[in-house]
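Field: sequence (string)
Field: structure_tokens (string)

Example rows 1 and 2, in order.
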Amino acid sequence: MSVSMLASQLLVGLSRGMIYFIVAAGLTLVFGVLRVINFTHGSFYMLGAFIGYSVAAGIGHGSAGFWLMLVLAPLAVAGISLLVERGFLQFVYRREHLIQVLLTYALVLIAGDLVKFFWGSQYRSLSTPPIFTGSFATGSITVPKYNVFLLLVGPLVALGLWLFLSHTRFGKICRATATDREMVDILGVNSTWIFAAVFALGGWLAGLGGALMAPVVNISLGMDANTIIYAFLIVVVGGLGNIWGALISSLIIGVGEAFGALFMPDWAVVLPYIITGVLLILRPSGLLKSVW
């Protein structure tokens, strides 16, 4: 096993972890503020990939189509998530979690049928844009350009969310709403629309993750299943509401999955769950402190 092969596999795991983080960041935001167990988040990720494919295919598989896909697909998913929140979820915020789980799971089934209706059940694929084709070479180690791009996007999203939640008025209102919604209402802030905006932002992040993942995976029905499970694992392991904890746990799971496929292919599917179990035994409250 050469050093270059190990380094390449490490970079693959890190870049895959960045996608998991972008999706999980939206989930931890929604769960932290709204206290909703939202299985539909994975469907938003899948919709981001399919809508991104349609945008890129309609314009052409070039750099312009790719950048426009990254703009339009997350915005479209944010709009869909806002409709879902206003049409369904706002009525179950104060209900028990089982009702929320049943509702969001039903929406997952509906989303799957809608995707099958509009795009069919066959696999779709999207080529890497010309600007990111090829690799960077460092000695005997080659790094695909698109993987480097993903490694840059993830930390930028984490930094942007941290600045938004910690250093903007709206972000501080979101944190206050998560802590004491009644007090926020008394102070004259409409928490209903805070919830709607946060849910739309979570949908935007899921759509962005799907659009970024579109050039490196087969776009198909069911691609939401593993992603939403990993997203929940990342949220719990990282610490509820902790953006940096989600980033760290995403990288751990992404790298574990990559090396598991290399060294233990028979165990690759279950390895992320084993890693999660070990981390929760060592740190039951999460890698970093929960902030909600």
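Row 2 begins here:
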Amino acid sequence: MLTQTRPSALAPSRLPSPQRVLPTRLCPADLLRLTDLNAADVLDGRHDAALPAHWSTTERWSTRLHSDDEVDVWLISWTPGVSTELHDHAGSLGALTVVSGSLAEYRWTGRDLRARTLDAGDQASFPLGWVHDVMRNPTTPVTVEPTLSVHAYSPPLTAMSFYEVTAEQSLRRVRTELTDEPE
């Protein structure tokens, strides 16, 4: 006698599980290594744009240190009172290393904003969907020199969306901008 069995709802599937496809072959650890290496180059004086003669102490600036089809690496300055606004990096992964000074990051957790401080030598990576606001740490004493950080984005940035937190404690996208420059 042939017995027919019904598959159990709890039985493991014989189909391969779907894999998450990332927009780049680089992973966050690769981007952290890139920002760390470029931060060391900045500190060693290997980038002319990082020399104090090029710094604005009143306006934020950025300069591209490296660019190819897979990744953009930027040196970004941070001056007092300037914020990036709450934003994401669209379809790009990101990472940063703080070269000098201190940054404050406000990250959306899904329920609220959570603050953290990143000091010189600290690193952070940003997976897809990471929404945050970055600024020079307001508790950092004002000096002549801006805070500097090195950022890597892979694939290179093409767009950024900007958000606001509503009265109901949810995110609302207020605009999306096409860009190939960092926040």
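free_text_note (row 2): The CA atoms of residues 26 and 154 lie 7 Å apart.
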